[in-house]
Amino acid sequence: MPCSELRLMEVCGTHTMAIARAGLKSLLPEGVKLLSGPGCPVCVTPPEVMDAVLELAMRPGVVTATYGDLVRVPGSRRGDSLARRRALGARLLVVYSPMDAVDWAAEHPESEVVFLGAGFETTAPGTAAAILDAAERGVPNFSVFSMLKRVEPALRALIASEGFNVQGFLCPGHVASITGAESFRFLPEEYGLPAVVAGFEPGDILSALRRLIELARSGAAALENRYERAVSPHGNALALAAMERVFEPRRDIWRGLGEIEASGLGIRPQFAAHDAERRLGVEIPPAAGSGGCRCGDVITGRSEPRDCPMFGGACTPEDPLGPCMVSSEGACAAAYKYEGV
Amino acid sequence: MSVDEIITLDYGSGGKKTSRLISDEILPRLENPALSELGDGAVLPGADRLVFSTDSFVVTPLFFPGGDIGKLAVCGTVNDIAMCGGEAKYLSLSLIIEEGLPVADLRRVMDSVQRAAAGAGVQVVTGDTKVVERSRGDGLYINTAGIGFLRHPGLSPKNMCEGDAVILSGTAGDHGAAVMLARGGLLDAGEAVESDCAALGALAEAVLSSGAEVRCLRDPTRGGVATTLCEFAESSGLGMELFETDIPVRPAVRAACSLLGLDVLYCANEGKLLAVVSAETAETALAAMRATDAGRDAAVIGRVSGADGGRVVLRTAAGGGRILQKLAGAQLPRIC
């Protein structure tokens, strides 16, 4: 069907940003549309989970350690975020690595350091390593609030969801460097969808996209790895082992996709001492309304950022309604900041 | 449901929230012709040929590769005056010191103030010191104000014309990257990245007296090159077209930004200026800038276009195009 529109999806926040930053959408051939899927860890986190984070951050003695991405993400109340809570007195530590948070906790035994573990299989091994490190060194005041998620169950749920209309996936090179290119084999084999693992330089992305378009246009359901310098067929055994040791799959809630079986990574009971949920008793409040935000539709490729009536008006990066606009990896932030010309 | 608005760090990032704070809360109450220009400094009406400016410095850490808060406090105000076409002469220096600051650190900062002032040809003629309780300050805050004589009147982005060349005086993002690396405890990795902190009086004078038709100058500090050019575009109503491959960036800075998830065009500079000059005299301006220490890597990075009214468009290395907006809030390191 060469005449019909080809809809391809990337499922990695870093791809979303790299594509926008290099202006690659303006170079796509006519009739090819590139959508952003559930690849931004912040965007797929539902507002009620952020509410729980905000509540946790305000507890006396708690120091919240986080990657920068989460600082401006609103909870269910507009304008409420860790940035605001910091201004109201919450102690916030923006770190580059969870190991920095373990070190900080060891130096400040009077504090209760909670690291916000957000991300996919890319960041899960580092978070696992931090928990193992804290357990080994005996840093009792370090724990992780796990919001970690797995890519495969989400992609399966997305493909099975109503109105799914995508003809091929640009697969996330960072995740694949951990899980291996073969972890995306299910896309062609079970769903007949071509999939190309891609790196992050503009040239990497363009070459992978070109191959993906060829595969999709010729109806070839195949998996190809175009990021071989970083991604092996079976991934990083050491990282996978650390993840396996510390985490176990659990049912999790995704913005836009709802609850998905085995899609999250919970901390195994033997590491309960470093699990903020068990240690500090974190309750996720009931889901609140979306307030008109269509991030859920954007994440699942049903809408593009510009289809949302809030885009650029009621919702901007400096006063965001939804996470897709605030996260540096969000599809809306990318569209707003790096609007194609 | 929304929450009451409070000041967060984003209001101090030099981007859109800072603009809104100024336009909503400050200008309506204090409006006057000198202030309304919103330049780096004010040309004082009635006081013939005087330029006045002030700046506060709250950098963490106090010492970073390539500079420290003392050098920054002198250069920042001197540069604001230079960007108005003035020659800085006199500074005030106010120190807000947190108790517990080692006197040795204060000495280091004051030595640096002394060196920077001598280098820039300014004298500190008045000042103030306050000490605040522990945990009420980050060791040391400095405010400087400066007075200079106006040498080159009439600089304003409103003078820009279609076809004008946009010149950046050197590599982009050095200061922002150096401070972020130092802050992240990544100093070892960051030794190749130094702040560009420098006084720009000589560079500004070189280009302004070169015979080139200079429309305006500005030093792209907070918010970086992108935010400053957006301000130019907004204020002139004209568009700008930048060429990514022409923008000088040190390889180590590019790598640091990529590692930290920062966009180099939004990283602060403390020793660079952007000049908009007529296309015909761009070579003259460039040669004059390159003959100075601070401007030896100067390059034409883009041009003023009539087409994209008020918008700044970046032509990327990959051949795509994207619109640059003002920084929306402080740049934050990313997850992965």
**What percentage of the residues of chain B does DSSP assign to strands (E)?**
15-25%
Anisotropy-based shape of chain B: globular
| SS class of chain B | alpha+beta
CATH homologous superfamily annotation of the largest domain in chain A: HypD, alpha/beta domain 2
Query: How does the overall form of chain A come out from the CA principal axes?
Result: globular
Beta-strand fraction estimate of chain A: 15-25%
SSE order of chain A, as H and E? EHEHEHEHEHEHEHHEHEHEEHHHH
Kindly state the number of beta strands of chain A.
Answer: 11
Oligomer: heterodimer
- Largest interface here, residues on each chain? A-B, 50 and 38 residues
Distance between the termini of chain A: 28 Å
Could you estimate the helical fraction of the residues of chain A in percent? 25-40%
Average pLDDT figure of chain B: 91
Helical run tally of chain B: 9
CATH topology of the largest domain in chain A: Rossmann fold
Radius of gyration of chain A: 20 Å
- Count structural domains of chain B: 2
For the largest sheet of chain B, list the strands in their spatial order: 9-11-8-12-10-13-14
Q: How many structural units, i.e. domains of chain A?
A: 3
